[in-house]
Amino acid sequence: EAGVTQSPTHLIKTRGQQATLRCSPISGHTSVYWYQQALGLGLQFLLWYDEGEERNRGNFPPRFSGRQFPNYSSELNVNALELEDSALYLCASSFSDRGLSGYTFGSGTRLTVV
Amino acid sequence: GQNIDQPTEMTATEGAIVQINCTYQTSGFNGLFWYQQHAGEAPTFLSYNVLDGLEEKGRFSSFLSRSKGYSYLLLKELQMKDSASYLCGPVLTGGGNKLTFGTGTQLKVEL
């Protein structure tokens, strides 16, 4: 069974540009979660999508947005990139039992803003 | 809100036992996960506690006290491959279940 897949693995962007990160959940999982892992700051919750809708959002500015497609894959968009957006972005998926059965993480997208 | 606190770093010897503590101040608590993350890799699931008490799984055990806002991860018979970051993750019910994490405890296992 394929795990959670994220693409691209690495992404380099210039300040002010936009970045799009993609995530495909495990088959059967309908919830997708996005996390930012900046150096020294741990995993910060960004967004939660379930059944195509945004269910919850962390303390991030509106330039962080996303969506979930009918096949439950998800996209994270970061507009007007800033240097401090450089981080590892992790996606996790779970069944739609609000994650109580466990979350499976992808390997992440390393975003570097220069 | 939440305030997750765990030690930043710990060092232990191969074959020994180590306990990683986690405290959290949160309302709407609905269980706690522990994840292991090796450098450059995705976090992997270790345990989930929703009721008070100890859950044992091989060399790893996890304990939860809901009334005290306290959990610990116990690693026995430490191996070099256990060197990793250990993430404590309470689940919050406000606005729908949300898995939050502390900054993680970097465990270094030495010979």
The gist of it:
By secondary structure, chain A is mostly beta strands. Chain A has strands at residues 5-7, 10-13, 19-24, 31-38, 42-50, 53-57, 64-68, 74-78, 87-94, 104-105, 109-113.
Write the SSE topology.
The complex is a heterodimer of chains A (114) and B (111).
Chain A: E1 5-7, E2 10-13, E3 19-24, E4 31-38, E5 42-50, E6 53-57, E7 64-68, E8 74-78, E9 87-94, E10 104-105, E11 109-113
Chain B: E1 4-5, E2 9-13, E3 18-24, E4 29-37, E5 44-49, E6 53-57, E7 60-65, E8 70-75, E9 84-92, E10 98-99, E11 105-110
Parallel strand pairs in B: 2-11
Antiparallel strand pairs in B: 1-3, 3-8, 4-5, 4-9, 6-7, 7-8, 9-10, 9-11
User: Helical stretch count of chain A?
Assistant: 0
In percent terms, what proportion of residues of chain B is strand?
Answer: over 45%
Distance from N terminus to C terminus of chain B (CA atoms, Å) equals 40 Å
Mean of residue pLDDT values of chain A: 92
Average pLDDT rating of chain B: 90
The count of strands of chain A amounts to 11
Keyword list:
heterodimer; A: mainly beta; seven-stranded mixed beta sheet; 0% helix; 53% strand; globular; B: 111 residues; mainly beta; five-stranded antiparallel beta sheet; 57% strand
Report on this model:
- The complex is a heterodimer of chains A (114) and B (111).
- With 114 residues, chain A is an all-beta fold.
- Chain A is built from no helices and eleven strands.
- Chain A has strands at 5-7, 10-13, 19-24, 31-38, 42-50, 53-57, 64-68, 74-78, 87-94, 104-105, 109-113.
- In chain A, strands 2, 4, 5, 6, 9, 10 and 11 form a seven-stranded mixed beta sheet that branches. In chain A, strands 1-3-8-7 form a four-stranded antiparallel beta sheet, with no helix packed on it.
- In chain A, strand 4 and strand 5 form a beta hairpin.
- Chain A is globular, with a radius of gyration of 13 Å.
- The termini of chain A are far apart.
- In chain B, strand 4 and strand 5 (44-49) form a beta hairpin.
- Chain B is globular and about 45 Å long.
- Chain B has strands at residues 4-5, 9-13, 18-24, 29-37, 44-49, 53-57, 60-65, 70-75, 84-92, 98-99, 105-110.
- Helices cover 0% and strands 57% of the residues of chain B.
- In chain B, the strands form two sheets. In chain B, strands 2, 4, 5, 9, 10 and 11 form a six-stranded mixed beta sheet that branches. Chain B has a five-stranded antiparallel beta sheet with strand order 1-3-8-7-6, with no helix packed on it.
- Chain B is mainly beta.
- Chain B starts with a strand and ends with a strand.
- The model of chain B has no long low-confidence stretch (mean pLDDT 90).
- Chains A and B meet through strand 5 and strand 10 of A and strand 4, strand 5, strand 9 and strand 10 of B.
